[in-house]
Amino acid sequence: MTRGDRLTEVVRERELSALVVTNLENVHYLSGYTGTNGVAVVGAEGQRDFFTDFRYLERAEVEVRDFERLRGKRDLLGDAAERLSAGRVGFEEEHMSVRSHRRFEGLVPEGVELVGVHGLVEGLREVKEEGELAIIRRAAALADDALAEALEGGLAGRTEREFAMALEDGFRARGAEPSFESIVASGPNGSLPHAEPGDTVIAEDVLVTVDYGAKIDGYCSDCTRTFATGEVGAEAREVYELVRAAQAAAGEAIRAGLGCKEADSIARAVIDDAGHAEHFGHGLGHGVGLEVHEGPRLTPAASEEETLVAGNVVTVEPGVYLPGRLGVRIEDLVVVTEDGSEVLSQLPKDLTVVGET
Question: Is the dihedral of CA 181, 187, 190, 196 positive or negative?
Answer without folding.
Answer: negative
